[in-house]
Amino acid sequence: MNDLEKKFRVKKTTKYKSQIALIIMVISIFGLFMITSPEVFLKWRIYQSFLSTVPIMGVMALGLTFVLAMGEIDLSFPSVMGMSGFIFAVTFQATNNVLLSIIASLLSGLTVGCINGVLVTCIGIPSIVATLGMQFLIRGFSNIISDGLSRTVALGGTFSYKIFAERLGVIPVQSIWFLGIAIFFYFLLLRHKFGEQALFIGDNKEAARMMGVNVIMMKIMVFMLMGAIASFAGILSCYRMRTWWPTMGEGYLMMVMAAVFVGGTSMFGGEANIEGTFIGAFIIGSLEAGIVASGLSGFWTQFVCGVLIIVSVIIHTISKKRRGT
Amino acid sequence: MDNLVEMKKIHKAYDGVVALKGIDFQIGYNEVVGILGDNGAGKSTLIKIIAGVHSFDKGEMYIKGKRINPKKHSVKTARNMGVETVYQEKALAEKQALWRNIFIGRQITNTLGFINIKKEQEETDKIMRDLMKFRGVGVGADSIIRTLSGGERQGVAISRAMYFEADPVILDEPTMALSLQEVKKVLNFIESIKEKGKSCIYISHNIANVYPVSDRFVAIDRGKVVGEFERKDISLQELSEGLIKYTEEVIQNKQEEKGKSNE
């Protein structure tokens, strides 16, 4: 075997190092939970619960992965989820028309995404600042128009309820949506022109521009995609609880970012790990339940979550360095 | 009109600062022209006008016999006419695979926009075999750009331009910050542009690099053409001595002018 082959061998084995590390992490976390609280974690029920709650933050983590791949960030999605959930709820209350409500809700998310994109590209505000502002603005806006009051959404028993909130056999449908969107995003990112261009923008904006990529248009569209996916999370949440409440989405910001970073996507752009985000969402989303079931106080959740983020980011960073990159 | 690019009395000023004062420049088909000059001489402005990055204020420009309207000339229209510039830092995305870098912006897709990965990789293999001539260097279509050396990167960018039939290929300081061996690779690519019957405008500070691959040299100073030489008429030594002498004279004249105005 010559040097060249050796070089290639090394590349092939390290290529999936991040993914392998993640799977080991999942197995050890759930293994630990099974040992510490077998009465909970050896039964299907807890997994059924995860499969219906994790997808709501998970789909937003997928969207954020796309935004990060492009070298930008979006902090406004928890508020967009709340606002679009409100629009879904009131449209449904007023018209009783599911399709119309969904369209109205998605449009509101797309609009906010478009505003984010315009602020970042045309005006030139760094995305972290622009979307931070929008996060407050949108939350305030939905509180003003809702008067801070919850809304009940009488969705039970409708056909759409089956699609968005019930189970297919023993599998909660939310998890099927999550899986479907993850697969769609995977292909969109790695097999489609759209995703390739987003990755190039995140990697070297000038090179992308020189090769004819419309950077401004692409950025606006990715922010719009993020807005739409946050709306979708709001709709799923309304279906699950059959209620809209004013703080919907709050608390998701850090969890979603944690899921993305645990999954191996970097802040620097040009890289994204959709499969990692998918797994990362389940790791982050199941921590609290697992820790509480183990008999530890809820205070441990944040501590363990922090440890996981730091450890996984160290693993991802080192494995990238080893790849000679 | 038998020139690929022809510029007549081109003037350009940025916010009142004159960059080009009536430049005449032409490049023929299948010709490599080296542009020489100090920083601020107007080299970059000249090529950016051809590439459509900047417009010009006065004068005439023709590309492939077609008169260019400065108001309508853009990077996009220039590219559609085959003008492609290779900038060292702005050419490639480092974390992406080589084959993606070849086809970015011009992806081979189906009607839904999904990339035909197999086709793009096959074409990349072909490009590497026929244009880059990377043989057994450990670089494949799948290689990530940042594992490539500086010279190889330039090779990828130049080969990409050639694959898409760019004519002329404009190279802006392609050998800057490269080791001697890497410089040699880049010069080989420039020679292959000529072999393929295409033209190249090559800008560099380093006369020793420009000399062996160029057919003609154009020396620019403060927005004007101050000398044009065919390679067959001038040796490298004469050229570099001439340029140094010219610079010294300019400095001397300036000092004299200063002295006069002080008197």
Please outline what is shown here.
The complex is a heterodimer of chains A (325) and B (263). Helices cover 77% and strands 2% of the residues of chain A. Chain A has helices at 3-15, 17-36, 38-41, 44-69, 77-95, 98-123, 127-146, 159-164, 173-190, 193-203, 205-210, 215-241, 252-262, 274-293, 299-322, and strands at residues 151-152, 167-168, 171-172, 243-244.
CATH classification class of chain B: Alpha Beta
Strand and helix order of chain B: EEEHEEHEHHHEHEHEEH
% residues in beta strands of chain B: 15-25%
Determine the N-to-C terminus distance of chain A: 23 Å
Low-confidence stretches of chain B: none
- Give a count of the beta strands of chain A, DSSP E runs of length 2 or more: 4
How many independent structural domains of chain A? 1
Please, could you describe this protein's structure?
- The complex is a heterodimer of chains A (325) and B (263).
- By secondary structure, chain A is mostly helical.
- Chain A has a single domain, classed as ABC transporter involved in vitamin B12 uptake, BtuC, CATH 1.10.3470.
- Chain A is built from 15 helices and 4 strands.
- In chain A, β2 and β3 form a beta hairpin.
- The longest helix of chain A is centred in the last third of the chain and has 27 residues.
- Chain B has 263 residues and is α/β, with parallel strands linked by helices.
- Chain B has a single domain, classed as P-loop containing nucleotide triphosphate hydrolases (Rossmann fold), CATH 3.40.50.300.
- Chain B has a 6-stranded mixed β-sheet with strand order 6-7-8-3-9-10, sandwiched between helices. A 4-stranded antiparallel β-sheet of chain B has the order 2-1-4-5, with helices on one face.
- Chain B starts with a strand and ends with a helix.
- The mean pLDDT of chain B is 86.
- Chains A and B meet through α1, α10 and α11 of A and α2 of B.
